[in-house]
Amino acid sequence: MRRIRLIAFVVGTLTSCAALAAHTIVIAGKIFTESYVLGEIGAQTIESSSHVPVTRKLGMGSTGILFEALRSGAIDVYPDYTGTLAEAILKRPELKSIDEIRQGLAGSGLTISDSLGFNDTYALAVKEEFAEKHNLHSIGDLIPIQSSIRAAFSYEFMDRKDGYPGLVGSYHLNFNPQKINRMEHTLSFQAIDQNAADLIDVYSTDAKIKKLNLRVLKDDHNYFPVYQAVWVARQGFADKYPREWQALRGLEGKISEETMLDMNAQADIQKIPFEKIAAQFLGSDSPTSKGWLHEVARRTKEHLWLVGVSLLFSVLVGIPLGVTAVRFHAAGQAILLSSAVVQTIPSLALLCFLIPVFGVGTKPALAALCLYSLLPVVLNTFTGIRAVNPIHLENARAFGLNRRQVLFKVVLPLASPTLLAGIKTATIVSIGTATLAALVGAGGYGVPIVSGLALNDVPTILMGAIPAALMALVAHGIFELLGLALIPASLRRRP
Amino acid sequence: MLKLQNICKTFEGRPVLDDVNLTVPKGVTHALIGSSGSGKTTLLRITLGLIPFDKGYVKINDQTLLSFTQVEWADRIGYVPQDGGLFPHISAKNNVALVATLRGWNKSRINDRVEELRKVVDLDPEILTHFPREMSGGQKQRVSIMRAAMMDPAVMLLDEPMAALDPLIRSSLQQELKSIFQRLGKTVLLVTHDLGEAVYLAEQLTMLHEGRMVQTGTYRELLLHPASPFVTQFINAQRTLPDASDVK
After folding, report:
1. pLDDT at residue A33 tops 90
2. CB neighbours of A53 closer than 8 A, spacing ≥ 6?
C-alpha cells in the first residue's frame, strides 16, 4: 500500500506539474467514427467562439473511462447518447426524456445539452431494390413477406430485450426462425451486400447504410429506445465557461440523422479528415491542417514524456528494489512475485483498475507504464547481482571495502551488463505499451493508431505505428552506446 | 608479528578448529598446510576477520582483531586470494589502487606507491593497463601481491598462491616469490595443501589435521621427528613420483 501511495505521489506530482501549465477546455470522444466527428465539431465550435484553447482527447476508450474522466475533471465535455447515459451510467433504463436524465446526472455534478438533432438507435434496413420491389417503407410493411424474408441479425440485437424479442411483439411479426441468421454485426453488412440476407439490424446513422445503398425502415410504433445525441459536460465547466457551453448548445437540433449519416460516410468511406468534415458542416474554412509532420512531432513529444517518466521511475525504484530483493530473501520473493503479477495483468485492464485511483489522462497511463517497466529492471537487477561470483564479495570485504563500496565498486559494475539489459527491455516494452495510453486520453503515438483502427484507415495507423517502431530502434541504439559508456570494457561481449 | 591464540570454532555443533596456536614473528614466512577439510580455509577467514569465532585471539603486533572494525583490520593485513582474485571489471592498476583511492589518497601518492611495488614484484609496466582476462596466471599473482601490499600492511596472507599455475611457471614464480617476500620484509602466512610450495617458501610449517594442529616446525623437524604417523603419511603422500631406479 505504501508503495502504491509512493507511486501515486510521484506520478501525481509529475502530472500536476504538467497540468498546471495551461488552462484549456478538454473535449473528448469515444473510439468510433461518429464520436470523433462530433468531438471535432464541438472543438471547432468553441475555437470559433472563444479564445480559450481547446485540447482534443478524441478516441478515448469506453463509456466508463469517459465518465470517470468527466467526473474527475480530466475532461470537460464529450458527446454521448441518452440511452447510453440512462442505461450504462445511471443504470435506470426507465428514464427516457432528456430532462429526466439531466436530473439524474445532476447528482454527479454533470449536465447535458438538448438533443443535437438525431437519434442513433437500432433500425432495420433492407436493400433499396428489395424495398422497391416489395414496397417497404416502415417496419409494419414487412408483415406480408414475413415468412419468406431472410434476416441477418447481430447477437446483441437478438439478445437485448429492447432488440428483437420486443420488436416482434410490438409489430406482431412472425418471421420464419429457419431464415434468421445470427452473426457478427460487421458481417451482416457483407451478408446483405452479397444477397445472402434481405434484412439486417443497423445503427441508424451507420455510414455503411449509405455505402451499401440500404433503406432504413421507419419505426412507426416508436418501439426502439431513443439514443438522442447530446453533449455531456461537467457542471463546473458549464458554470466557468458559460459562453463556450452556450456555443456548444447552439448545435442543438442542428444535426439531422441524414447529415450525421452523411458525415460518417465521408469519414469512413471517403477517408476525409475529421477536421475537414467538421469545418464543412460548420460552414467555416477548413482549419489549415498543420500537416502530418506537426502531428507526428506532437505525438512524439507526448510519447517521449510517457516513456521517459516511466523509465526514470523504473530505474530509481526498480534498482533499489532489486538490490533489496537480493539482500532480504523473504522481501525479495515478495517483490519479485508482485512485480511479476503486475506484468500478467492485461494492459487495458490495468488502465481500468488505475482510473478510480488516478482519474483519466496522463496519470493512470504513467502509473501503468511505471508498473510495467518495473519487472524487467527489478528482475535483471536481482539476477545480475545474484550472478556475481560471491568470491569477489568476500574478497572485497577482506580488502576493507564497506557495504556501500562493495555495492557500488564491485557488485553493480559486475552486474551492469544484465542491469542495463533490463532497463533496455523496460524501455522497449514501455514504448510499445505507451501506445495504449491514448485510450485514457494521455496522447502519444496511440492516438493515430486508435483513430486509424476506428476508421479502418491503414495510413493513419501507420502514422503512429512507424514512429513507435522507429523510437524503439533509436532506443536500442542509445542503449548500445550507453553500454559502451557504462559497462566496464572487460565485461562487454567481445565482437 | 601475527599471533593466533587458542582459536576455537564450531560449526553446527561440530568443532572445525580446536585450540589452534600459531605465532609468526616479524619478517618470517610461515606456511599453514593441510588437506581439504583440515580447517585451514576457516582459519584463513578468521584471520582476515571475515567470520566470527568462538574463543581465542587473533593479534597483529599485540593488537587484537576484535578491537578493530573490518575496514581498519583490512589495512593491517594484506590478502592475496587464490588465483589472484583480481576484480575482472577494472584494470590491473585500478585493482592495485582501489582501496587507496577509496581512502582518499591523491593521484601522485598512488602512482608513486604503485611504481614502487611494481619494481618489487618486477612487473612489466604495460601489464598495469591490462584487464585480468588479458593477463597470465603469474602476472595476476604479481598484481595481486601489489594490491595486498599497497596499504603497507604488517602481515600478508596468501591463499594457495601457486595452485592455479602450470608446473613450469610455478617453479620460476616460486623463486621469484621468495625474493619478493624478502624485499617486502613482511610477516607472511601462506595457506596451502602443497607441501613442496610450503617447504620452498616458508621457514616454518604448521600442519593442520581435522581442526587441530598436529605439528609446527621446520620441514626437517617434520621429516625426522614427526609428531604423529599422520605427518609422515602426509609427507609421503606428496612424494608420489617413482625414483629413477624404479623406472625401466
Report:
1. no
2. A22, A23, A24, A25
Q: Kindly determine whether residue B73 and residue A400, on different chains, have CB atoms separated by under 8 Å.
A: yes
Q: Are A401 and B48 in contact (CB < 8 Å)?
A: no
Residues B80, B141 contacting (CB under 8 angstroms)? yes
Segment B103-158, tens digit of pLDDT: 999 999 999 999 999 998 889 999 999 999 999 888 999 999 999 999 999 999 99
What is the value of ipTM here, to two decimals? 0.89
- B106/B104 Cα distance (integer angstroms): 6
Among residues 396-415 of chain A, which lie with CB inside 8 Å of chain B?
396-402, 405, 409-410, 413-414
Q: How far apart are CA B122 and CA A495, in angstroms?
A: 33
Amino acid occupying residue A394: E
One-letter-per-residue 3-state SS of A82-102:
HHHHHHHHCCCCCCCCHHHHH
DSSP state of A228: B
Q: Which residues contact A195 (CB under 8 A, 6 or more apart)?
A: none
On chain B, the residues whose CB falls within 8 A of the CB of A483 are none
Q: How far apart are CA B223 and CA B231, in angstroms?
A: 8
Query: What is chain B's length?
Result: 248
DSSP calls for A14-47? HHHHHHHT---EEEEEESSHHHHHHHHHHHHHHH
Percent helix, percent strand, percent coil in chain A, to nearest 5:
65, 10, 25
Q: Do B98 and A409 touch (CB under 8 A)?
A: yes
Q: What is the pLDDT of residues B190-245, one digit of tens each?
A: 999 888 888 888 999 999 999 899 999 998 898 889 999 988 888 888 766 666 67
Please indicate whether, in this complex, the C-beta atoms of B74 and A394 are within 8 angstroms of each other: no
Q: Is B214 helix (H, G, I), strand (E, B) or coil?
A: strand
